[in-house]
Specification:
Number of helices: 13
Radius of gyration: 20 Å
Strand content: 25-35%
Structural class: alpha/beta
Distance between the termini: 42 Å
Shape: globular
Helix content: 25-40%
Strand order of the largest sheet: 3-2-4-1-5-6-7
Largest sheet: 7 strands, parallel
Number of strands: 13
Order of helices and strands: EHEHEHEHEHHEHEHHHHEHEEEEHE
Length: 366
């Protein structure tokens, strides 16, 4: 049996990694209806949100690595996660989708090590970096990790460029060129990239990295204490109430519409709300309400845009959000967590429908 190819997908917060991944599934199934794509998903915070979205989108198997970074403090969990997918799902391919702060070279070295330790089981196909053209010119200036993600990759996908003029795209390409790397690139089509461009790239850079490169890479590029851990702060939020409690959608919409994107990078949530009170930022893409007055949603907010995706009832919800009206992760710029913790606790932006404040807990976890 051939080794399972592994593709690493990186990109800074809100770049559109999950959207691009989910758009690959129907392409693969159209070619081979029995194709099995498995996912190892590393998420900020202690709530499995994107992985639940993937589970509801015909991804064959998902392993979550929560509340840490897959390239450093969670790296030891990668081998067991790959082994579980290999033995239970028997996938045709595994995608490792990193958190927005992961350093791709360190992760590629670890995958190569696992492949050597398990001959014939895995083969690293390549590293793909997703860049949000609309916002990269801003966070590239402040994020050490965003620059590293663009530097240590086999393929760059320029995403979210449609609302920008050609000058912005040229500027981003020039900034990538300043990193002194010769990397293939492709533009997405509103989050869609042909599967044969993402997979089967046989990445020369990623595949050649070994443990011997690690010391050199860390000493020149990756000071965890100075850059990696301190670029963002993370709040974990829960809102509890009686059985059947529903989040006040109007108050939640106020939060989504007013959050400044230079302070708030991402908002991710699993929640129950009335389908009449919540809308995606692009209403044309809002899924139609279900017959129920209240619906369980997965919320993804990035740089002032957001989507509400209703979950399918047969999907078993992850234990991190089960039986709670709302579980949310906010990923913030440095030094913003204290202000936003107080704002959420005092301004009534997250309450239950019907005037019940509910039991709100806001905790800084990173």
């Amino acid at each position: 049996m051939s080794p399972i190819p592994i593709t690493i997908v990186t990109g800074f917060l809100g770049s559109g990694k999950t959207t691009i991944l989910l758009n690959l599934v129907p392409q693969l199934r159209a070619t081979n209806p029995s194709y099995k794509l498995a996912l190892v998903k590393n998420e900020f915070g202690d709530v499995a949100i994107d992985s639940q979205l993937a589970s509801s989108s015909a991804v064959s198997g998902v392993q979550e690595l929560l509340n840490g970074c897959i390239c450093c403090n969670l790296v030891g969990q990668l081998a067991p996660a790959l082994s579980e997918l290999r033995d239970t799902v028997k996938p045709d391919r595994i995608v490792i989708e990193t958190s927005g702060s992961a350093f791709p070279a360190t992760l590629a070295i670890e995958v190569n090590r696992i492949a050597r330790d398990n001959p014939g089981s895995y083969a690293l196909d390549g590293v793909v970096n997703v860049i949000d053209v609309e916002n990269w010119a801003g966070y590239e200036d402040t994020s050490f990790t965003a620059r590293l993600q663009a530097k240590y990759t086999d393929l760059i996908v320029f995403n979210k460029w449609e609302s920008c003029d050609e000058r912005r795209l040229d500027e981003v390409r020039d900034r990538v060129g300043d990193l002194e790397v010769d990397v293939a690139w492709v533009k997405s089509d509103r989050g869609r990239v042909p599967a044969d461009l993402i997979f089967g790239i046989d990445g020369g850079l990623a595949g050649a990295l070994t443990d011997g490169d690690l010391t050199s890479l860390q000493s020149h590029d990756h000071d965890h204490d100075g850059h990696h851990q301190s670029e963002v702060e993370v709040l974990s939020v829960s809102l509890r109430g009686p059985e059947g409690a529903v989040v006040d959608g109007d108050k939640l919409m106020t939060l989504l519409q007013t959050a400044p994107k230079d302070e708030v990078y991402r908002i991710k949530s699993v929640l129950t709300a009335s389908s009449a009170t919540v809308k995606s930022s692009d209403q044309n893409n809002t899924p139609p309400p279900t017959s129920s007055a209240s619906t369980r949603y997965i919320l993804n907010w990035a740089f002032g845009r957001w989507t509400f995706t209703p979950t399918e009832s047969p999907i078993e919800e992850h234990e991190s959000s089960r039986d709670v009206a709302l579980r949310m992760t906010l990923i913030l710029a440095r030094y913003e967590s204290a202000k936003w913790k107080k704002k959420l606790e005092t301004e009534g932006l997250l309450v239950l429908q019907g005037g019940n404040a509910g039991e709100l807990t806001v905790t800084k976890i990173a």
